[in-house]
Amino acid sequence: MRLRRQTMNDRLREKIAMLPESPGCYIMKSRGEIIYIGKAVNLKNRVRQYFHGSHTPKVAAMAARVDDFDLMLCQTNFEALTLECNLIKKHKPFYNILLKDDKHYPYLRIDLSETYPRLTLARRMQARDGAKYFGPYIGATAVRQVMEEVRRFFPLRTCKQSLPLKTPRRPCMNHQIGKCLAPCAGLVSEKEYRAILDRVIAFLSGDSRELLKQLESEMLAASMRMEYEQAAVIRDKINDIKQLMEEQHAIQTKAVEQDILAVAVDGIDAMVQLTHIRAGRMEGGRAILMEGCGSEEPEQILAQFLTQYYDDEQLIPRNVLVQCLPEPIDELEKWLRERRGGAVTLSCPQRGDKADLIRLAVKNAENALFHHRESQQVKYARTTLAMEELQQALGLPTLPRRIEGYDISNTQGILSVAAMVVFEDGQPAKKEYRHFRIKTVEGPNDFASMYEVIHRRLSHGLEEYRERTENGLDPNTGRFSKLPDVILIDGGPEQLRYAQRAMKAAGADIPMFSLAERYEIIFVPDREEPIVLDRRSNAQMLIQYVRDEAHRFGITHHRALRGKNNLQSELEKIEGIGPKRRTALIRHFGGVKPIFTASKEALMEVEGISSEMAERILAYAKTRK
Q1: CA-CA distance, 329 to 571, in Å (whole number)?
Q2: What is the reported pLDDT for 3?
């Protein structure tokens, strides 16, 4: 809910202020649509840059559209890069247009059939070609960034020569600067070269622990030989690798399909982080709020989530990794297997890469819950301020915690309906919304229609209140017995007068005011001059929101009734179909549309529909097509 007509700074300042200083991906949105995805070593610094300073026209245009953003936290920049690739591939945002036009996303490729394999760029993966692939990446730029990192650490050849040569040649400049082992000159054996290649594969696969272990052994050996300069070179390489990709989670070595579930609680709500891994790659994820269960144990929350979320067997992967094993585990696995139609394993890894994935999911869940709670606190502060401002402006005896708004919708007096919307503590309470069909008014008379709906609502409410009180029932749980603190009427002083009369006739005494749409001014009973609030005030934004919501709710219902009425009236265009037969047909088929698609035999099952009448209906149905 927006209580203020906020600018970019108003809407996003709180989220930007709470950005974490960690690596990850940011997902820029405009009216719910993802328009840009990027990565950052420091999310706080990078995201803030979009809303400060000068930019290229493209970036400025994108930033001007952003009204919200989401985050996916990562452990390293390398992980953020690969996750960014997968997210852009999946969502194809408009402002990533230069990256999404390619039909095939590039891979890194090592042809293991070569004697001295190279690291190259491949536009597509070829099956069973003897090569090892890594990726895909979002574009050639991303691939080359990774290739540069590999070449910084590992002296693989870059030339296109077919090796080994019959006659060794003189080493190139890359060998002179330590970037190549010069297999073309015969300066390295195939076995030695393959040992380096194995490290490259481990590096690109995210298996950095084994690689670091080997390098640490070499550093120790060089130190023991008193080759301190060489040991220092290896030490620097170890530090660089640790900084770049301590543990890569965004691309896994096996083409597994699994979901990762973790939960964070704060005593009020719970946030479940769901991360999808498909074909061995992290495809992103989302945080899902579970309201009102923040005091339960994580095992209970995950059990509830599993049975609620995995309602579609197509969504269930072979493996589901969880922060803790929910109970009863056997029954849950059985339920998942039946839903999926195949094996499903719930597991809670304690060590290794999978445990690291769980820890990262927990971190994302905690971050999402923190932002949700902060957002709720900001929203609560604003809505409380809005209610306090409204109480002061209208001179209300109590804080208007429950506001009811009313609007009339009709088309030249036909199908008149009234809408009642309810706001509790400044938020829409949509379960409390009600529609009223106007019964006593003929023709376009909004004043009389407003009188009818207010009188009906308050009469029913007071009667139900008395009945529930006399029977020892809570009046706040009835359909109409919970009365408002203030009533808002859409319209001017005349609509307000009719509503006032209706309220008095019903025997109620509730503060009431109206809001005129054209000038956005407030009319109050027994007051000659209208009240004019600052249009930027929280109170003004709140009452406009209530009024606009009543109008939206009413007009939507009116359009639906009008469409339904047109269909029902259409039946009576058929010769021999009157109100009685029309009602019988609608009751039998459950609506109008199925009547026009029914067979002759099905139509004749309805009382009063003869063979000849069924033929007329079928003939008319053909003209509709």
Answers
A1: 56
A2: 40
Helix ranges (DSSP H) in 572-592: 579-589
Fold of 397-562: Nucleotidyltransferase; domain 5 (3.30.420)
In the prediction, which pLDDT does 11 show?
A: 66
CATH superfamily, domain at 258-371: UvrC, RNAse H endonuclease domain (3.30.420.340)
The answer to whether 326 and 299 are in contact (CB under 8 A) is yes
Confidence of residue 1 (pLDDT cuts 50, 70, 90): very low
- DSSP strands (E only) in 62-103: 68-73
Q: Would you state the pLDDT for residue 314? A: 52
Choosing among 1.10.150.20, 3.40.50.11810, 2.40.50.140, 3.30.360.10, the CATH entry for 572-624 is 1.10.150.20
- Check whether the bond before 511 is cis (ω within 30° of 0): no
Directed axis angle between helix 352-394 and helix 538-571, to 10°? 100
Residue 154, beta-bridge partner list? none
Domain ranges of the chain: 8-100, 258-371, 397-562, 572-624
Burial class (CB in 10 A: 0-12, 13-18, 19+), 352: exposed
349: closest CA among 265, 214, 256? Answer: 256
3-state secondary structure of 428: strand
CA-based angle 96:97:102, to the nearest 5? 110
The band of 258, judged by pLDDT with boundaries at 50, 70 and 90, is confident
State in Å, rounded, how far the first CA of the chain is from the last one: 43
CA distance 358 to 349: 8
Mean pLDDT for 453-459 is: 96
With contact defined as beta carbons under 8 Å apart, do 249 and 282 qualify?
yes
Q: Report pTM.
A: 0.48
* Per-residue pLDDT, 5: 40
| Residues forming beta bridges with residue 62, ordered by sequence position | none
The CATH T-level fold of domain 8-100 is GIY-YIG endonuclease (3.40.1440)
